[in-house]
Write a structure and sequence with these properties.
Blueprint: E1 5-13, H1 19-29, E2 33-45, E3 48-54, H2 57-70, E4 75-78, H3 84-97, E5 102-104, H4 122-129, E6 135-136, H5 140-147, H6 154-166, E7 173-175, E8 185-189, E9 194-198, H7 210-223, H8 228-244, H9 260-263, E10 273-277
Parallel strand pairs: 1-2, 1-4, 4-5, 5-6
Antiparallel strand pairs: 2-3, 7-8, 8-9, 9-10
Length: 281
């Protein structure tokens, strides 16, 4: 049995639905050994974020160094990096380690509305981290902030994905369409063509941690040596089932169901559709 390993560099969610906890659960369910470097500790539940406590820069650096110099990682992902100096540190560590399979999830706002990224950190994200990303996975509000574009159509999402790759230097981009009404369609642009991933929409308030879970699934599949398109397809199936088979935990925005992919049919029962756009932009 080949052992695949993935590292998540992100914040901790005490409620278990997002952040480090969601990443490690996703890695485990996709048969990847998960490791973590915690950038911040949050006091959080389904009702909101009640406190954010940053880890000292030295502590973040030592966690990353300890993991990579001993166990190593086949792929890595970033999540909540709240301050510019944290982003710069993580970018430096990733660069020095030569991590090429890096998934950047530009976490900006929690489901309850709490800001998780200082405005001063946005430039550092664009300039330091995105050029190191094999793929960046923003939702629509995040893509709007990063690109400065107003995204109100599928064509706008394509433009944002191209900008993230061609101008900001990411290897590829997946602009997620879950915030739109109707069929939730994600736009993947790999520098050559668009790939559209769509699935049925499920009306539920239990969607806390969807972005973390999706990006962690992409990271896990890249760690196995899958292509980006294969990784994105699996991640879309994983999160679709996790939303469909909700746990119903908490009085607010509850977590998704990280068991669902293996317990409820996986590849055969996701209803995810993949379409390739042959024309390049």
């Amino acid at each position: 049995m080949t052992l695949y390993k993935a590292l998540t560099i992100a914040g901790s969610d005490s409620g278990g639905g997002a952040g480090i906890q969601a990443d490690l659960k996703t890695f485990q369910m996709l048969d990847v050994y998960g490791m973590s470097a915690i950038t911040a500790v949050t006091a959080q539940n389904t009702l909101g974020v009640h406190g954010i406590y940053d880890i000292p820069l030295e502590g973040i650096e030592r966690q990353i160094h300890a993991v990579l110099t001993d166990v190593g990682a086949d792929a890595a992902k970033t999540g909540m990096l709240s301050q510019p100096q944290v982003i710069e540190l993580v970018a430096d560590c990733v660069s020095k380690a030569g991590l090429t399979r890096l998934v950047v999830d530009p976490v900006m706002v929690a489901k309850g509305g709490a800001s998780l990224l200082a405005e001063s950190a946005q430039d550092a994200l664009r300039e330091k981290l995105l050029p190191l990303a094999a793929v960046v996975t923003p939702n629509l509000p995040e893509a709007e902030v990063i690109t400065g574009l107003k995204l109100i159509s599928l064509e706008d999402m394509k433009k944002a994905a191209v900008l993230l790759v061609k101008e900001l230097g990411a290897g590829a981009a997946i602009v997620k369409g879950g915030h739109y009404e109707g069929t939730p369609t994600d736009v993947l642009y790999d520098g050559e063509a668009f790939h559209l991933l769509s699935a049925e929409r499920y009306e539920t308030r239990h969607t806390h941690g969807t972005g973390c879970t999706f990006s962690a699934a992409v990271c896990a599949e890249l760690a196995k040596g899958r292509t980006l398109l294969e990784a994105a397809h699996t991640a879309k199936k994983f999160i679709t089932l996790a939303i469909r088979h909700e746990l119903g935990i908490g009085g607010g925005h509850g977590p998704t169901n990280h068991w669902a992919y293996t317990r409820h049919g996986g590849d055969t029962d996701s209803g995810v559709h993949l379409q390739k756009e042959l024309l390049t932009p």
